[in-house]
Input
Amino acid sequence: MAIAFAPRANITHIDNDISAWFGKDDPVYRDYERFRDEFGGSRTLIHFINRYRREVAAGATTDEAIETATVHEGRASLTTAVINSLGFGVLLLSEYKPTAWFGGLLGLTMAVAFLAEVFILPATIKLLPRMFGADALRRTRRKLAAA
Output
């Protein structure tokens, strides 16, 4: 989904910094990459985008749809990010350094994914109204219905 590109790009930028520090062949980085893909921000972004689309389909403006999606999906995303970050953060107490790094990196990824969903995704929608605004979504829906 093109709309999720900006938040995912932010997370990917941080991942590139992490991979440069560890090295792509490091087992800690490979485990981090696998868990990031499983528990990371893309799933929460999907919930936000789906809620935004539902609100637009119900007749909301772009601003109203963003506000509703942020209030409802943002609360769930915050709870998920806090619980997962604290859960993985416990691994920071490990004496085995690779496990401690792994926990810290996953906690950081969850926090960044939440911030990307709440700040970057709505900003992307507002900055690109011809692609992601309410009117653009309605036009696309009409074209698909006519086809």
